[in-house]
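Reminder to self: C-alpha coordinates first, then the designed residues, so the page reads top to bottom the way the pipeline ran.
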Protein backbone atom coordinates (compact mmCIF):
# COMPACT_ATOMS: atom_id res chain seq x y z
CA UNK A 1 0.00 0.00 0.00
CA UNK A 2 1.37 3.37 -1.04
CA UNK A 3 1.35 6.49 1.10
CA UNK A 4 -2.11 8.00 1.32
CA UNK A 5 -2.93 10.97 -0.86
CA UNK A 6 -3.78 14.30 0.73
CA UNK A 7 -7.43 13.78 -0.20
CA UNK A 8 -7.54 10.34 1.45
CA UNK A 9 -5.78 11.72 4.51
CA UNK A 10 -8.37 14.49 4.80
CA UNK A 11 -11.19 11.94 4.63
CA UNK A 12 -9.64 9.86 7.40
CA UNK A 13 -8.75 12.80 9.60
CA UNK A 14 -12.27 14.19 9.30
CA UNK A 15 -14.02 11.00 10.43
CA UNK A 16 -14.98 10.09 13.98
CA UNK A 17 -12.77 7.60 15.89
CA UNK A 18 -13.64 4.09 14.75
CA UNK A 19 -15.31 5.29 11.56
CA UNK A 20 -12.21 6.35 9.64
CA UNK A 21 -11.99 3.19 7.56
CA UNK A 22 -15.71 3.32 6.73
CA UNK A 23 -15.24 6.87 5.42
CA UNK A 24 -12.19 5.69 3.47
CA UNK A 25 -14.16 2.89 1.79
CA UNK A 26 -16.74 5.41 0.57
CA UNK A 27 -13.94 7.61 -0.75
CA UNK A 28 -11.85 4.92 -2.42
CA UNK A 29 -14.86 3.36 -4.14
CA UNK A 30 -15.28 6.63 -6.03
CA UNK A 31 -11.64 6.67 -7.16
CA UNK A 32 -11.64 3.44 -9.16
CA UNK A 33 -12.11 3.41 -12.91
CA UNK A 34 -13.97 0.75 -14.87
CA UNK A 35 -10.93 -1.50 -15.41
CA UNK A 36 -10.06 -1.48 -11.71
CA UNK A 37 -13.62 -2.21 -10.61
CA UNK A 38 -13.94 -4.98 -13.18
CA UNK A 39 -10.70 -6.67 -12.16
CA UNK A 40 -11.51 -6.51 -8.45
CA UNK A 41 -15.00 -7.81 -9.14
CA UNK A 42 -13.52 -10.67 -11.17
CA UNK A 43 -11.24 -11.70 -8.31
CA UNK A 44 -14.04 -11.45 -5.74
CA UNK A 45 -16.36 -13.52 -7.93
CA UNK A 46 -13.73 -16.23 -8.26
CA UNK A 47 -13.13 -16.37 -4.52
CA UNK A 48 -16.81 -16.40 -3.56
CA UNK A 49 -17.99 -18.86 -6.20
CA UNK A 50 -15.04 -21.27 -5.98
CA UNK A 51 -13.83 -20.75 -2.43
CA UNK A 52 -10.24 -20.14 -3.51
CA UNK A 53 -8.09 -18.01 -5.77
CA UNK A 54 -5.42 -19.07 -8.23
CA UNK A 55 -1.89 -17.75 -7.63
CA UNK A 56 -1.00 -14.57 -9.48
CA UNK A 57 0.85 -16.25 -12.38
CA UNK A 58 -2.48 -17.92 -13.25
CA UNK A 59 -4.99 -15.38 -11.95
CA UNK A 60 -3.92 -12.38 -14.00
CA UNK A 61 -3.61 -14.19 -17.38
CA UNK A 62 -7.02 -15.76 -16.70
CA UNK A 63 -8.42 -12.28 -16.06
CA UNK A 64 -7.02 -11.10 -19.41
CA UNK A 65 -8.87 -13.93 -21.19
CA UNK A 66 -12.09 -13.64 -19.19
CA UNK A 67 -12.47 -9.88 -19.22
CA UNK A 68 -11.33 -9.08 -22.73
CA UNK A 69 -8.82 -6.54 -21.43
CA UNK A 70 -5.25 -6.32 -22.64
CA UNK A 71 -2.44 -7.56 -20.42
CA UNK A 72 -1.25 -3.98 -19.98
CA UNK A 73 -4.67 -2.82 -18.80
CA UNK A 74 -5.02 -5.70 -16.36
CA UNK A 75 -1.54 -5.12 -14.95
CA UNK A 76 -2.17 -1.38 -14.64
CA UNK A 77 -5.49 -1.96 -12.86
CA UNK A 78 -3.87 -4.49 -10.53
CA UNK A 79 -1.15 -2.01 -9.62
CA UNK A 80 -3.73 0.61 -8.60
CA UNK A 81 -5.65 -1.90 -6.46
CA UNK A 82 -2.40 -2.81 -4.72
CA UNK A 83 -1.53 0.85 -4.22
CA UNK A 84 -4.85 1.55 -2.51
CA UNK A 85 -4.60 -1.52 -0.29
CA UNK A 86 -7.65 -3.07 -1.94
CA UNK A 87 -5.55 -6.15 -2.70
CA UNK A 88 -2.81 -7.58 -0.49
CA UNK A 89 -0.43 -10.29 -1.60
CA UNK A 90 2.14 -12.55 -0.03
CA UNK A 91 4.51 -13.61 -2.80
CA UNK A 92 2.32 -15.01 -5.57
CA UNK A 93 -0.67 -15.49 -3.26
CA UNK A 94 -3.51 -13.01 -2.75
CA UNK A 95 -4.34 -12.80 0.96
CA UNK A 96 -7.11 -10.15 1.06
CA UNK A 97 -9.54 -8.62 -1.43
CA UNK A 98 -11.05 -5.17 -0.90
CA UNK A 99 -9.69 -5.33 2.67
CA UNK A 100 -12.77 -7.34 3.71
CA UNK A 101 -12.41 -10.82 2.16
CA UNK A 102 -9.68 -13.22 3.27
CA UNK A 103 -8.36 -16.13 1.24
CA UNK A 104 -7.25 -18.02 4.35
CA UNK A 105 -8.89 -18.99 7.64
CA UNK A 106 -10.67 -16.45 9.81
CA UNK A 107 -12.61 -16.21 13.07
CA UNK A 108 -15.33 -14.35 11.13
CA UNK A 109 -17.08 -16.15 8.26
CA UNK A 110 -20.07 -15.53 6.03
CA UNK A 111 -22.20 -18.58 5.26
CA UNK A 112 -24.14 -17.87 2.07
CA UNK A 113 -27.58 -18.85 0.81
CA UNK A 114 -30.66 -20.44 2.33
CA UNK A 115 -28.80 -23.64 3.15
CA UNK A 116 -25.62 -21.79 4.28
CA UNK A 117 -23.59 -24.31 2.28
CA UNK A 118 -21.05 -21.85 0.85
CA UNK A 119 -18.63 -19.88 2.99
CA UNK A 120 -16.30 -16.95 2.55
CA UNK A 121 -13.79 -15.84 5.17
CA UNK A 122 -14.01 -12.22 6.34
CA UNK A 123 -11.01 -10.15 7.36
CA UNK A 124 -12.70 -8.94 10.54
CA UNK A 125 -15.85 -7.75 12.33
CA UNK A 126 -16.41 -4.60 10.30
CA UNK A 127 -16.65 -6.67 7.12
CA UNK A 128 -19.58 -8.52 8.69
CA UNK A 129 -21.72 -5.40 8.59
CA UNK A 130 -21.52 -4.82 4.84
CA UNK A 131 -20.85 -8.19 3.24
CA UNK A 132 -24.48 -9.12 2.49
CA UNK A 133 -25.14 -5.86 0.61
CA UNK A 134 -21.73 -6.10 -1.07
CA UNK A 135 -22.42 -9.56 -2.49
CA UNK A 136 -26.20 -9.09 -2.77
CA UNK A 137 -26.64 -12.48 -1.13
CA UNK A 138 -28.44 -13.43 2.06
CA UNK A 139 -26.65 -15.53 4.64
CA UNK A 140 -25.31 -15.64 8.16
CA UNK A 141 -22.16 -14.27 9.73
CA UNK A 142 -20.62 -16.51 12.36
CA UNK A 143 -17.88 -15.01 14.52
CA UNK A 144 -15.91 -15.99 17.57
CA UNK A 145 -16.58 -13.72 20.53
CA UNK A 146 -13.48 -11.55 20.71
CA UNK A 147 -13.77 -11.21 24.47
CA UNK A 148 -13.79 -14.91 25.28
CA UNK A 149 -11.19 -17.64 25.32
CA UNK A 150 -14.00 -20.17 25.06
CA UNK A 151 -15.72 -21.30 21.85
CA UNK A 152 -18.59 -18.84 22.27
CA UNK A 153 -19.81 -17.43 18.96
CA UNK A 154 -22.16 -14.73 17.77
CA UNK A 155 -24.31 -14.77 14.65
CA UNK A 156 -25.62 -11.99 12.42
CA UNK A 157 -28.47 -13.04 10.15
CA UNK A 158 -28.57 -11.13 6.86
CA UNK A 159 -30.81 -10.59 3.88
CA UNK A 160 -29.52 -9.12 0.64
CA UNK A 161 -29.53 -5.62 2.12
CA UNK A 162 -27.66 -6.29 5.34
CA UNK A 163 -27.96 -7.49 8.92
CA UNK A 164 -31.56 -7.86 10.14
CA UNK A 165 -31.17 -9.88 13.36
CA UNK A 166 -28.55 -11.28 15.74
CA UNK A 167 -27.92 -14.16 18.08
CA UNK A 168 -27.79 -13.49 20.94
CA UNK A 169 -29.70 -10.21 21.11
CA UNK A 170 -26.98 -8.89 23.42
CA UNK A 171 -24.29 -8.74 20.69
CA UNK A 172 -21.95 -5.73 20.96
CA UNK A 173 -19.18 -4.37 18.70
CA UNK A 174 -15.95 -2.39 18.89
CA UNK A 175 -14.52 -0.53 15.90
CA UNK A 176 -10.91 0.62 16.32
CA UNK A 177 -9.51 3.96 15.22
CA UNK A 178 -7.39 4.00 12.07
CA UNK A 179 -4.78 6.61 11.21
CA UNK A 180 -4.08 5.38 7.68
CA UNK A 181 -0.50 4.30 8.39
CA UNK A 182 -1.42 0.61 8.20
CA UNK A 183 -3.35 -1.19 5.43
CA UNK A 184 -7.13 -0.76 5.62
CA UNK A 185 -7.43 -4.49 6.26
CA UNK A 186 -5.70 -3.93 9.61
CA UNK A 187 -8.52 -1.61 10.67
CA UNK A 188 -11.15 -4.06 9.40
CA UNK A 189 -9.45 -6.88 11.32
CA UNK A 190 -9.25 -4.88 14.55
CA UNK A 191 -11.81 -4.58 17.30
CA UNK A 192 -14.31 -7.36 17.69
CA UNK A 193 -17.80 -8.77 18.04
CA UNK A 194 -18.87 -9.68 21.56
CA UNK A 195 -21.54 -11.77 23.23
CA UNK A 196 -22.65 -8.89 25.42
CA UNK A 197 -21.72 -5.55 26.96
CA UNK A 198 -19.79 -7.19 29.79
CA UNK A 199 -17.54 -9.02 27.32
CA UNK A 200 -17.00 -5.76 25.42
CA UNK A 201 -16.13 -3.85 28.60
CA UNK A 202 -13.74 -6.56 29.74
CA UNK A 203 -12.01 -6.57 26.36
CA UNK A 204 -11.60 -2.81 26.47
CA UNK A 205 -10.06 -3.04 29.93
CA UNK A 206 -7.72 -5.83 28.89
CA UNK A 207 -6.59 -3.77 25.88
CA UNK A 208 -6.03 -0.57 27.90
CA UNK A 209 -9.14 1.17 26.58
CA UNK A 210 -8.07 1.55 22.92
CA UNK A 211 -9.20 4.44 20.75
CA UNK A 212 -12.25 3.70 18.69
CA UNK A 213 -16.02 3.35 18.86
CA UNK A 214 -17.65 0.89 21.27
CA UNK A 215 -21.18 -0.05 20.23
CA UNK A 216 -23.11 -1.59 23.09
CA UNK A 217 -26.03 -3.93 22.55
CA UNK A 218 -28.48 -1.02 22.86
CA UNK A 219 -26.91 0.93 19.98
CA UNK A 220 -25.84 -2.07 17.91
CA UNK A 221 -29.00 -2.35 15.72
CA UNK A 222 -29.02 1.32 14.71
CA UNK A 223 -25.28 1.39 14.08
CA UNK A 224 -25.35 -1.80 12.04
CA UNK A 225 -28.04 -0.41 9.75
CA UNK A 226 -26.17 2.83 9.14
CA UNK A 227 -22.65 1.45 8.87
CA UNK A 228 -23.77 -1.61 6.94
CA UNK A 229 -25.49 0.60 4.39
CA UNK A 230 -22.45 2.86 3.96
CA UNK A 231 -19.92 0.06 3.78
CA UNK A 232 -22.09 -2.28 1.75
CA UNK A 233 -22.89 0.40 -0.82
CA UNK A 234 -19.21 1.20 -1.31
CA UNK A 235 -18.25 -2.47 -1.64
CA UNK A 236 -21.16 -3.27 -3.93
CA UNK A 237 -19.95 -0.64 -6.40
CA UNK A 238 -16.60 -2.47 -6.56
CA UNK A 239 -18.02 -6.02 -6.63
CA UNK A 240 -20.84 -5.89 -9.18
CA UNK A 241 -18.97 -5.48 -12.45
CA UNK A 242 -18.50 -9.10 -13.53
CA UNK A 243 -21.06 -11.61 -12.33
CA UNK A 244 -24.33 -12.08 -10.56
CA UNK A 245 -23.40 -13.80 -7.30
CA UNK A 246 -26.74 -15.55 -7.08
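Designed residues (246 positions):
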Amino acid sequence: MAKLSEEARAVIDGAAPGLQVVAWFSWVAEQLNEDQRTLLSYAVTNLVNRGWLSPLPKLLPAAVDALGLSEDRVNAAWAVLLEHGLIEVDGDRVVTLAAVLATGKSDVNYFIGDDLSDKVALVGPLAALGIARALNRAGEVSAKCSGSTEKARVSLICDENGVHSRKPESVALFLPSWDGTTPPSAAVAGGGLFLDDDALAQWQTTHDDPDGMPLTSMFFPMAVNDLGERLGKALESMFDHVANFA
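The first strand starts at residue 87 and ends at 90.
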